[in-house]
Amino acid sequence: MDGALSGIEVLEFSEYIAGPFAGMLLGDLGAHVIKIEPPDGEPWRHASPFIPNESRNFISLNRGKRSLPLDLTRPEAREIVYRLLEHTDVVIVNARPDVGAKLGIDYETLSAKKPNLVYCDNTAFGRTGPDRRRPGFDLIAQAVTGLMASEAKLEDGLPLRVQSTAVADFATGLAMAWGICAALYHRERTGRGQIVESTLLATTMAFQTMVLTQVEAIDQGPRKDFLDALDRLRGQGAPFDEIIEEYRRLRSPWRERDPFYRAYQASDGVITVACLSRRLRIRLLDALGLDDPRFDPDFDPDSADFEALDADLTERVRGVLRRRTVADWLRTFDRAGVPAAPVKLPDELLSDEQVLANDLVVELEHSLAGPVKMVGPILNMSATPPAASRASPTLGEDTEEILARLGYAPNQIRRLIDEGVTR
Fold it and tell me: Does residue 363 sit in the same domain as residue 382?
């Protein structure tokens, strides 16, 4: 069965995470994706490789693609790109705004040759503004958008990044795929192509929309107080941990030790509870046989020490949950309608019963590495189901096939390889 994007041809000029993830998502939807990379391979191939030119990082982000290495500084390589463009619907570029023009793959150049082209241009900071030429990675996006600071995780007084995943990169990859699909729908209706601009800056800000929404009536004063204090502290050379403490005191709108929304130790593992509403919190207390004065009709919130109440309730919940196993508590909470889950490690998920029941793991055959298990398509679609069509390509695995399809003779392909134009 064909995917939703069957027949769509994609040229991907990207490295690392955001662009490759977007290309892989389009490939899962049925698009034919050709990855253009330097003759020695994109850098992610060489991040902790287990065999030459192959790493777990690269394999995890490039399934379903064809590899065509090209030295884009050479006119012969650019000619190959322009031939490919005749059959291309989508171009993905993940670089600083000046890089595309230097290599002849910028929107202005390619759209002049293919007016109905959908061109996705991903940068760290955007195509305009004082930071437009700055390079940026996930860590940079976390820093400039306040995400690192708001996490309030410190080491030696300095902020730590969100360490579990490259949240800015992966989120931006999703945004890129979303924008490309919308642009393809627009082209279907109008026949016109366009440029889709995504940035690490915008996506990482969007993921903090609750923090970055200011209601003037209630936020203007506290925000000014904090910014004034921030200027004063920085002028005094205050260390970062003091600044974060001031942020928590003046600006932070949440309580960090909410006993109803956190992890607890059971007798044989760790369990989380997530009760955000009054109704769910009462259910949790009833299931545990506990009370909280905040649910008393006569409770006076203006005279209460919420931090002390949170700390007291947290200790009492801890004492109860330690008495039984995670499985026991899950059965209790399921009966009571309390949102809860065990804390698992990533390595457990490839054999997890719920994960497997939803077909979230695929096994592919890599031409060098052999069998590869990985997270499969993230959507289900009844009429055009996504599919993981093939493992990531080895470097130059598809060069001869692609060039032959463009009309290059075998001797021409050999010359291009020998001269380092391709591989």
Answer: yes
Say if 354 falls within a structural domain: no
Contacts (Cβ under 8 Å, ≥6 apart) of 357: none
> What per-residue confidence (pLDDT) applies to 153?
82
Q: Which residues does residue 37 pair with via DSSP β-bridges, in sequence order?
A: 69
Quickly tell me which residue has 């600044």 as its tokens: 243
pLDDT in tens, 194-239: 999 999 999 999 999 988 999 999 888 888 888 999 999 999 999 9
Q: Decide if 169 contacts 20 (C-beta within 8 A).
A: no
Q: What 8-state DSSP symbol labels residue 130?
A: T
Tally of structural domains, the chain: 3
Alpha carbon distances (Å) from 41 to 70, 362, 363, 394: 9, 25, 24, 9
Residue at 108 is within a domain: yes
The reported pTM is 0.94
Asked whether 410 and 29 are in contact (CB, 8 A), the reply is: no
Six-digit token pair at 42?
A: 């994109």
CA–CA gap between residue 136 and residue 364 (Å, rounded): 32
List, as own/partner pairs, every contact residues 141-147 make where C-beta atoms lie below 8 angstroms and the sequence separation is at least 24, other chains included: 141/168, 141/169, 141/200, 141/201, 141/203, 141/204, 142/167, 142/168, 142/204, 144/201, 145/201, 145/204, 145/205, 145/208, 146/208, 146/211, 146/212, 147/204, 147/207, 147/208
In the structure encoding, which two tokens stand for residue 290, read together?
């506990």
